[in-house]
UniProtKB/TrEMBL annotation, chain A:
<feature type="domain" description="Leucine-binding protein">
    <location>
        <begin position="39"/>
        <end position="353"/>
    </location>
</feature>
<dbReference type="InterPro" id="IPR051010">
    <property type="entry name" value="BCAA_transport"/>
</dbReference>
<feature type="signal peptide">
    <location>
        <begin position="1"/>
        <end position="32"/>
    </location>
</feature>
<dbReference type="InterPro" id="IPR028081">
    <property type="entry name" value="Leu-bd"/>
</dbReference>
<keyword id="KW-0732">Signal</keyword>
<dbReference type="InterPro" id="IPR028082">
    <property type="entry name" value="Peripla_BP_I"/>
</dbReference>
<dbReference type="Pfam" id="PF13458">
    <property type="entry name" value="Peripla_BP_6"/>
</dbReference>
<protein>
    <submittedName>
        <fullName>ABC-type branched-chain amino acid transport system, substrate-binding protein</fullName>
    </submittedName>
</protein>
<comment type="similarity">
    <text>Belongs to the leucine-binding protein family.</text>
</comment>
TrEMBL record, chain B:
<dbReference type="InterPro" id="IPR052157">
    <property type="entry name" value="BCAA_transport_permease"/>
</dbReference>
<keyword id="KW-0472">Membrane</keyword>
<dbReference type="Pfam" id="PF02653">
    <property type="entry name" value="BPD_transp_2"/>
</dbReference>
<dbReference type="GO" id="GO:0006865">
    <property type="term" value="P:amino acid transport"/>
</dbReference>
<dbReference type="GO" id="GO:0005886">
    <property type="term" value="C:plasma membrane"/>
</dbReference>
<dbReference type="GO" id="GO:0022857">
    <property type="term" value="F:transmembrane transporter activity"/>
</dbReference>
<keyword id="KW-0029">Amino-acid transport</keyword>
<protein>
    <submittedName>
        <fullName>Branched-chain amino acid transport system permease protein</fullName>
    </submittedName>
</protein>
<keyword id="KW-0812">Transmembrane</keyword>
Length: 386, 296
């Protein structure tokens, strides 16, 4: 009997040792310790998948550039920031997994580049965990603890598109909207607010749709003089291309939303010439900014609006962390309280490139411009707006 | 009426691609009674082959098409020898072949994912210059017209080969009973490999059209159309090439009507309701015959 007990004890001890070893190997033994003294912040970016090319990658680059440029200022303030990056893979499950990994490393702040469904999945967790979330979601986020912030103001630049179309004399305006993505529905509603008579034709598509022949037949039947494409950038490119191939859309003005990116041109090529869309920022002004030059030098490509947003959010993060460090506490609650003021601080006004204010209730206020594609697909200003 | 006609033509164009994809599926199912799901990955690789040849090497689509058909056909033959042949003769061979094919699907999709570096790629627009055409009140593009004509020719030639040639008789014999076919001197492996080749070639051609017409190629491309192909098989009848054509067209037209008259959001619902209705009321599909597997 005694020997049996010993065997059991040995087995239990062996099992406990194995579990401990596994926990140590998988990093499940609780938050990792940080001996460097650096403030760890999380970047939950769509580095692969549908949203990578248009949103995740340029955002990551802009963010990285801002933090790189802020190093002398951080050194001066005695603050060090370490960015922990997780790939959200343009999908909700990966975003939640990525967020949980960042939470396990005790980050006080998580920056998430885009995609409402991803932001909406992560926001309740962030509020529960008291981690400040700065998200590029286009739609409202759960914000019970006040920890969710959006840096995208879709309505201000988008509403101006509707009034612009009306001013140009367009009367029969149609809409193609990705109805399965709340951001695009929100954008469509914001555009419609600027239209005196609303949309004359409304076509809902799914974000996964690739064949638009039936939708184009409907648009043709409705005899429109302008069509607003509130869909993913690649899908907008595909629609433009299929409209060109189908014919009878030569005299229809095509307008996009703030979600349009260079990917639209990559898909549609020269068929996208003349296509106009609002952006929070576009390169190609008469005086290229220092940001524009440095981004192009570092990454070998002209920045997009999401690159600019990444840069702006990067500087805002730096300003908030410096302020938190000065106040003596760098945690989720401190950053939540400091972020709105940081977004309009002198540091951000001096180094940032956008007029972007994050409010205490988690919303963003920004102006915008109208952009179009130049030769070779470069995004350029079509005229000031918003 | 013009609008109805236009949407019907749109549906026929879409349905013809579904039909070609489903026909490849159906050929294998009729020949060996297995659900070769890795066919979806062969479809994906067909699109990748087309993209490599047109966008990287600068070939035109029509020149690349036969090469894509051969490459996709060979890939499917490889799938037959690696995934199907070894397990088919075991007890419960059909289920084992299905599971093996499922494994092949996962491996091939992962390979495609790595090959494309997780990205969505697009065909070079110069690979085929499409132009709009007006036929009475109907608008169609030259690409769509060629797609429909080529699919009809492929399906017609396949049906003729199966019904009127010695090879077709051998395929039908293997489909009826492969052991009996072997006793009668039919080389079952050769015939099955031939069927897999034809099936893969059809997937390659269908994938090339999808890639150029809808302008999206990613690792999950074939899997996206898997359920649609199943729908075409349910409607048309398992194993009948002619049935697959009609099934694909019915699914394509139903899908287009749903988008045209209701909304794109109802499209999948309409297709699945149609599929369920067929399963409940006419499980043998539109083309009823006495012996399902002798219809190939």
């Amino acid at each position: 009997m005694r020997s049996v007990n010993w065997t059991r004890k040995r087995r239990l001890a062996g099992a406990a040792a194995m579990v401990a070893a596994l926990l140590a190997l998988t990093g499940c033994g609780g938050p990792a310790g940080d001996n460097s003294g650096a403030v760890r912040i999380g970047l939950l970016a769509n580095l692969t998948g549908d949203a990578a090319m248009s949103f995740g990658k340029p955002f990551e680059r802009g963010f990285e550039l801002a933090l790189h440029e802020a190093e002398p200022i951080l050194d001066e303030s005695g603050v060090s920031i370490e960015v922990l990056t997780e790939d959200a893979k343009s999908a909700v499950p990966s975003a939640v997994t990525g967020y949980n990994k960042l939470r396990q490393q005790s980050v006080p702040l998580v920056v998430q580049d885009s995609q409402s469904p991803l932001g909406q999945a992560v926001a309740p967790l962030a509020n529960e965990d008291r981690i400040t979330l700065v998200s590029g979601a286009g739609s409202a986020l759960e914000n019970s603890g006040g920890y969710s912030f959006r840096f995208t103001d879709l309505s201000t630049p988008t509403m101006s598109v509707g009034s612009r179309l009306a001013e140009e004399g367009h009367t029969r305006i149609g809409l193609v909207v990705a109805g399965d993505n709340p951001s695009f529905t929100t954008l469509a509603e914001a555009t419609e607010k600027g239209l005196p008579a609303g949309f004359a034709s409304r076509q809902e598509v799914s974000s996964q749709d690739t064949d638009f022949s039936a939708v184009l037949a409907n648009l043709r039947r409705d005899r429109l003089d302008a069509v607003v494409l509130s869909v993913l950038p690649a899908q907008a490119g595909n629609l433009i291309l299929q409209m060109k191939n189908a014919g009878e859309f030569e005299h229809v003005k095509l307008i996009g939303t703030v979600a349009i990116s260079g990917e639209t041109y990559t898909v549609a090529r020269d068929s996208a010439r003349g296509f106009e869309f609002p952006q929070v920022w576009a390169p190609g002004g008469t005086n290229p900014t220092a940001f524009e030059r440095r981004y192009t030098e570092k990454y070998g490509e002209v920045p997009t609006a999401y690159g600019a947003l990444g840069y702006q959010v990067g500087w805002t993060t730096v300003a908030a962390v410096i302020q938190a460090e000065k106040s003596g506490t760098v945690d989720g609650s401190a950053l939540r309280d400091l972020l709105p003021a940081a977004s309009t601080s002198d540091l951000v006004r001096e180094h940032g490139i956008l007029g972007l204010e994050m409010t205490a209730d988690g919303l963003a206020i920004s102006s915008g411009v109208m952009a179009t594609f130049a030769d070779g697909g470069a995004m350029v200003l079509a005229g000031s707006d918003g | 009426m013009d609008f109805l006609l236009q949407q019907t033509v749109n549906g026929i164009v879409l349905g013809s691609v579904y039909a070609l994809y489903a026909s490849g599926f159906g050929l294998v199912m009729a020949n060996l009674r297995i659900f070769h799901v890795a066919h979806a990955a062969v479809f994906t690789w067909g699109a990748i082959f087309a993209w490599e040849l047109t966008s990287r090497l600068g070939w035109s689509l029509l020149v690349a098409l036969p090469v894509v058909a051969v490459l996709a056909g060979l890939l499917n033959v490889l799938a037959y020898f690696l995934l199907i042949r070894r397990v088919l003769h075991r007890r419960g061979g059909e289920m084992a072949a299905f599971i093996s094919s499922m494994g092949g699907l996962i491996v091939l999709v992962e390979l495609a994912h790595h090959h494309l570096d997780g990205a969505v790629v697009r065909m070079n627009a110069d690979a085929f210059t499409s132009a709009p055409l007006s036929i009475g009140p109907v608008r169609i593009t030259t690409l769509h017209l060629i797609m429909v004509c080529l699919v009809l020719v492929i399906v017609a030639v396949t049906s003729w080969l199966l019904a009127r040639t010695e090879l077709g008789r051998e395929i039908r014999t293997v489909a009826f009973d492969k052991d009996t076919a072997a006793i009668l001197g039919v080389n079952v492996d050769r015939v099955s490999a031939g069927v897999f080749f034809a099936s893969g070639a059809m997937a390659g051609v269908a994938a090339s059209f999808v890639a150029i017409a809808f302008n999206v190629i990613d690792a999950g491309l074939g899997s996206t159309y898997l359920v649609i192909a199943l729908g075409a098989m349910v409607v048309g009848g398992f194993g009948s090439v002619g049935g697959m054509l009609v099934g694909g067209l019915v699914i394509g037209i139903a899908s287009t009507y749903a988008t045209g008259y209701l909304s794109s959001t109802y499209r999948d619902l309409v297709v699945f309701v149609l599929m369920l209705l067929f399963l409940a009321l006419r499980p043998e599909g539109l083309f009823r015959t006495r012996a399902e597997l002798t219809r190939v």
